[in-house]
Design goal:
Elements lengths: L2 E2 H8 L2 E3 L5 E2 L1 E2 L9 E5 L15 E5 L11 E5 L2 H14 L6 E2 L4 E2 L4 E2 L4 E2 L4 E2 L4 E2 L4 E2 L4 E2 L4 E2 L4 E2 L4 E2 L4 E2 L4 E2 L4 E4 L4 E3 L5 E3 L5 E4 L4 E2 L4 E3 L5 E4 L4 E2 L4 E2 L4 E2 L4 E2 L4 E2 L4 E2 L4 E2 L4 E2 L4 E2 L4 E2 L4 E2 L9 E3 L4 E2 H12 L1 H16 L1
Parallel strand pairs: 4-5, 5-6, 6-7, 8-11, 9-12, 10-13, 11-14, 12-15, 13-16, 14-17, 15-18, 16-19, 17-20, 18-21, 19-24, 20-25, 21-26, 24-27, 25-28, 26-29, 27-30, 28-31, 29-32, 30-33, 31-34, 32-35, 33-36, 34-37, 35-38, 37-39
Antiparallel strand pairs: 1-3, 2-7, 22-23, 39-40
């Protein structure tokens, strides 16, 4: 599909600088731009490419000050990154969704399918499963008995939705994700072995949640593991049994969250964060990459870093001392020698 720069500016309610009739048919990074492409600039470290890019149109922030003339057409908006995402969502929504059930899918007789669903090849849908309207289920997906998938959700190839799982509206489950696997529950025995504790709960995923590829969310021992509305989970995340993640929290790859921890709303976790079990993480907490959290964080909007986690400002002060430890030791040793003398 093609759009003119003016049409894009009108849609974004932006200010146009340059040729309003130039046509766009693709998108590209600003440093890899080509004629007919739309790019955006939001990170200042890429500013230099604005003056050399071959992209036909570039989205920039309204307050961006040009250092020299540009060859491209500019559209000034309040937030270039958000506007670019808005355009991508628009383009994605124009794609026609598939409808129908592939002849090589296996669907149990008492499963219920909504209107305008797509079921790909080698999909299995179990007993008493309920599938809402406009749901898209790609190949090799398994949805076990008593699960529910609400309207507009997309489940990509190879995902496994195990028994009793409930997934809300307009969710995206990426390839290889496992929803509802057994929680890690074992009782130590007197002879040194471990007795498996049956995991009889389920997983509840509310509306507008995205689960990354190969992420696993364990069913609760009893009750529910709950992922609240608007949560975004990256690839390769482990969410243990009875965890609750609050609305609009985002968590990056390779994070592990141990059992029964409650995470607040609008939190942000970097990659490889580790959170111990039975903790409470307050609303708005931000954890830098590789932060280890052994204790609850009760202050909202705290920014933490390090293992064990500490306030980011305190960590910065401590790190100055840490990197100077060899010199500090030399000074202490020198003072000890002088004192002994």
């Amino acid at each position: 599909m093609e759009f003119t720069a003016k049409a894009i500016a009108d849609f974004l309610q932006g200010t146009l600088e340059g040729n309003p009739d130039v046509k766009i048919n693709t998108v590209a990074k600003i440093e890899e731009g080509k004629p007919g492409a739309l790019s955006f600039l939001s990170n200042p470290k890429y500013s230099k490419y604005l003056y050399t890019t071959q992209s036909s149109v570039v989205l920039i922030n309204k307050d961006f000050l040009l250092e020299k003339p540009v060859l491209t057409t500019l559209i000034r908006v309040d937030n270039a990154y958000e506007s670019f995402a808005k355009l991508l969502n628009l383009a994605n929504s124009t794609q026609i969704a598939k409808v129908g059930v592939h002849q090589q899918a296996v669907i149990e007789p008492n499963a219920k399918l909504g209107n305008d669903v797509f079921i790909g090849p080698f999909v299995y849908i179990g007993d008493s499963v309920k599938i809402g309207n406009n749901v898209q289920i790609s190949s090799h997906v398994i949805i076990e008995k008593d699960s529910e998938i609400d309207d507009g959700t997309i489940i990509h190839c190879g995902a496994k939705i195990l028994s009793g799982s409930i997934i809300g509206k307009n969710c995206i489950i990426q390839p290889g994700a496992v929803i509802g696997s057994d929680g890690f529950g074992f009782a130590p025995q007197a002879n040194g072995t471990y007795q498996k504790i049956p995991q009889i709960g389920n997983v509840i995923i509310e509306d507008d949640v995205e689960i990354g590829a190969n992420t696993t969310i364990d069913r609760a021992t009893m009750g529910s593991t709950i992922i609240r509305k608007g949560v975004k989970l990256d690839n390769l995340i482990q969410v243990a049994h009875n965890v609750e993640i609050g609305e609009n929290t985002v968590i990056a790859a390779q994070t592990g969250i141990a059992g029964s921890t409650k995470i607040g709303r609008s939190c942000m976790f970097g990659g490889q964060v580790g959170v111990s079990g039975h903790l409470i993480i307050a609303d708005g907490v931000k954890l830098s990459a590789q932060t280890g959290v052994p204790n609850s964080i009760k202050n909202p909007n705290e920014i933490m870093i390090g293992t064990p986690a500490m306030n980011s400002k305190k960590f910065a002060r401590s790190f100055v001392l840490f990197k100077n430890l060899p010199e500090i030791k030399m000074d202490v040793d020198s003072l000890k020698r002088k004192f002994n003398e």
